[in-house]
């Protein structure tokens, strides 16, 4: 029997525990793992030479499939190149099992080649670090080796999921002899069976009573994968208690909940717009007494800062396990349940329900507003710029106002409670309605200079239904969070907001495209993120469903849009780091269909072909001027601030 039999058993353990996708990078020290995974009939192995790109591709696979993916690399600095993706997986709670081949322990720090200190390589950014036994000839050592891999996979998948490292010291010989068959033994694995925590009935009753009796309650969602059960439970909760629900685009609350639900009855998503209105009356009207949160990070800095300043008397965070962040410095209670289970349980009837009429909260103008800003319209200030002399995107067909009420709204409430909650709900809905109308009007201004904000608006309006939208960091994620998506479209949104880095956004989208080849996968990215991660395309696997929208302003354009760097003389050289690269050569090198546009007319003509299924893997490069983008976005922000000026 081979001295490497315990290593050769690793793919069998993975397969039995549900890991069927492996991304590896070639190397000599990892050869026993490479050969074993490649020869296992239940494992799909993909080879990506660049370890940083490989790890993010693995992250994209795991993020999309919602199950663990394995990474395999050789010894030395190879594993260090996994670190950015490992950190992202840790904070985004994505299960990765990282197998790092290593020198035997006696050769560490002995000036041997490709050797670094690999034990606990990722430190606090991994859920756990395991060391595979260096010698496995004894039966107990083989048992230990099997147990280590089983425990590592189990830990990676336990909520909150995350990355784990298994460091595997290997001695030569690494390769089987000519004609030697590799055997996969029957192995005993340890399975982790998931459970769902529930609250005692008396505790649920207390929570229901607190929600019913508190007039100013708001739900805020952080980043969260699409979850139909959660969407349905949230809408039922919002109806039962007349509570506004607010979420960034990456919370995926914009998706239709169920065919029987009025699609206008959806959570609010334009907080980046209405939170920028300098209206003290509005801020006071929106101030919550009870804040209920779930999910991970927020994109909206305006909402985050507002909630920190608002200091609600109570803040509950819903999370079944793991460390809970006190993001708004107001946390008073952690509820250990899955969010879908919590909202469904609290929304379910707990006794006889009162009968009452339904307050009209469909539009702010239907009755007196709590703040003067709600009665003011869009300002008439014109943007003076050189015209593009072409059309911008057609205004989407009206879908009706956002609403949270229909017959049976407030079914959990007394008449007094319902009246109080309707008074708090009204300014939230009015703000959302105004922001929706404002954006539709603003984006249709004639004679705009060609700019990336409006170009993104056009792209989002034409996204294929049922697609996956990956947003790179910096302005590529902020613009869509402001604009939102067309109502009723089933577009799931992904973004690497665990660490918010630019280093693997393209690779993550490619992993997603590989994981679901029948689904359109669209990446919206900026030039710095794109060119930084060009090795994402350095592999041999077709992705005909991938569409890359590249915003190339030849600079790190975000630095022109934030106070601080934009006022400094060092802006262009040391913050924007201007570059003159174009993506045409990258597209040619990796076989992507390439289109370049620099006007609204060209963009409007290109989008139907770009999104057509028969076009195959494609790259659309939208070239704009960084200063024009900054000026136009500042004009947008000024319009938001001044539209309600007296």
What does this structure look like?
With 646 residues, this protein is an alpha/beta fold. It has three domains: 4-169, Thiamin diphosphate (ThDP)-binding fold, Pyr/PP domains (Rossmann fold, 3-Layer(aba) Sandwich); 201-348 and 410-424, 3-Layer(aba) Sandwich (Rossmann fold); 445-643, Rossmann fold. It has helices at 5-8, 10-16, 31-39, 51-65, 83-92, 139-157, 201-213, 228-241, 271-274, 280-286, 301-310, 339-347, 415-442, 452-461, 475-483, 505-515, 527-532, 571-576, 584-589, 600-611, 626-642; strands at 21-24, 44-47, 69-73, 96-102, 128-131, 163-169, 217-221, 245-247, 290-294, 314-318, 333-335, 468-471, 492-495, 521-526, 546-552, 593-597, 618-623. A six-stranded parallel sheet has the order 2-1-3-4-6-5, sandwiched between helices. Strands 13-12-14-15-17-16 form a six-stranded parallel sheet, sandwiched between helices. Helix 8 links the parallel strand 7 and strand 8 (245-247). Helix 4 packs across helix 16 (505-515). It is globular, with a radius of gyration of 27 Å. Residues 351-387 have low confidence and may be disordered. Its EC number is 2.2.1.9. It catalyses: isochorismate + 2-oxoglutarate + H(+) = 5-enolpyruvoyl-6-hydroxy-2-succinyl-cyclohex-3-ene-1-carboxylate + CO2. Residues 10-110 form the Thiamine pyrophosphate enzyme N-terminal TPP-binding domain. Homodimer. Keywords: Magnesium, Manganese, Menaquinone biosynthesis, Metal-binding, Thiamine pyrophosphate, Transferase.
């Amino acid at each position: 029997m081979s001295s490497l039999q315990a290593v050769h058993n690793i793919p069998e353990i993975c397969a039995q525990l549900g890991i069927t996708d492996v991304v590896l990078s070639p190397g000599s020290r990892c050869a026993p793992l490479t050969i074993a995974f490649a020869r296992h009939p239940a494992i799909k192995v993909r080879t990506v030479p660049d370890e940083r790109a490989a790890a993010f591709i693995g992250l994209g696979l795991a993020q999309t499939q919602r199950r663990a993916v394995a990474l395999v690399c050789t010894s030395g600095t190879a594993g260090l190149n996994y670190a950015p993706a490992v950190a992202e997986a840790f904070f985004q709670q994505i299960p990765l099992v990282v197998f790092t081949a290593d020198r035997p322990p006696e050769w560490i720090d002995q000036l041997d080649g490709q050797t670094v200190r690999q034990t606990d390589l990722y430190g606090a950014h991994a859920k756990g670090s395991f060391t595979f036994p260096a010698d496995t000839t004894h039966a107990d050592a083989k048992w230990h080796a099997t147990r280590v891999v089983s425990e590592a996979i189990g830990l990676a998948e336990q909520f909150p999921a995350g990355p784990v490292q298994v460091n595997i010291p290997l001695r030569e010989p690494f390769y089987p002899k000519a004609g030697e068959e590799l055997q996969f033994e029957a192995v005993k694995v340890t399975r982790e069976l998931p459970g769902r925590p529930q609250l005692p009935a008396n505790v649920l009753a207390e929570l229901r009573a607190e929600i019913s009796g508190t007039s100013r309650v708001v739900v805020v969602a952080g980043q969260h994968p699409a979850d139909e059960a959660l969407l349905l439970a949230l809408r039922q909760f919002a109806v039962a208690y007349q509570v506004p629900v607010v979420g960034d685009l990456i919370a995926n609350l914009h998706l239709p909940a169920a065919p029987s639900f009025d699609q206008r009855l959806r959570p609010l998503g334009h907080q980046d717009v209405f939170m920028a209105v300098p209206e003290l009356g509005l801020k006071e009207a929106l101030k919550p007494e009870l804040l209920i949160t779930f999910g991970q990070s927020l994109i909206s800095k305006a909402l985050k800062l507002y909630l920190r300043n608002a200091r609600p008397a109570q803040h509950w965070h819903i999370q079944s396990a793991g460390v809970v962040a006190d993001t708004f410095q107001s946390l008073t209670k952690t509820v250990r349940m899955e969010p879908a289970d919590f909202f469904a349980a609290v929304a379910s009837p707990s006794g006889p329900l009162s009968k009452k009429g339904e307050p009209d909260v469909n539009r702010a103008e239907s009755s007196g507003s709590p703040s003067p800003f709600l009665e003011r319209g869009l300002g008439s200030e014109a943007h003076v710029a050189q015209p593009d002399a072409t059309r911008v995107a057609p205004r989407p067909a009206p879908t009706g106002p956002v609403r949270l009420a229909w017959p049976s709204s407030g079914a959990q409430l007394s008449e007094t409670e319902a009246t109080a909650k309707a008074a708090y709900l009204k300014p939230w809905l009015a703000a959302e309605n105004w922001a929706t109308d404002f954006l539709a009007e603003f984006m249709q201004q004639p004679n705009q200079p060609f700019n990336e904000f409006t170009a993104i608006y056009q792209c989002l309006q034409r996204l294929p239904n049922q697609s996956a939208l990956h947003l790179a960091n910096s302005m590529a994620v902020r613009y869509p969070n402001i604009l939102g998506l067309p109502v009723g479209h089933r577009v799931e949104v992904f973004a690497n907001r665990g660490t918010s880095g630019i280093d693997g956004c393209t690779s993550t989208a490619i992993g997603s495209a590989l994981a679901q080849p029948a689904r359109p996968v669209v990446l919206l990215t900026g030039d710095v993120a794109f060119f930084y991660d060009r090795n994402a395309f350095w592999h041999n696997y077709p992705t005909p469903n991938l569409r890359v929208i590249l915003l190339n302003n030849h600079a790190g354009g975000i630095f022109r849009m934030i106070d601080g760097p934009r006022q400094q003389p060092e802006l262009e050289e040391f913050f924007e780091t201007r570059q003159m690269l174009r993506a045409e050569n990258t597209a040619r090198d990796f076989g992507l269909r390439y289109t370049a546009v620099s006007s609204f007319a060209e963009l409007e003509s290109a989008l139907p072909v770009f999104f057509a299924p028969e076009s195959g893997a494609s790259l659309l490069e939208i070239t704009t001027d960084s200063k024009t983008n900054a000026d136009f976005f500042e004009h947008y922000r000024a319009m938001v601030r001044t539209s309600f000026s007296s």
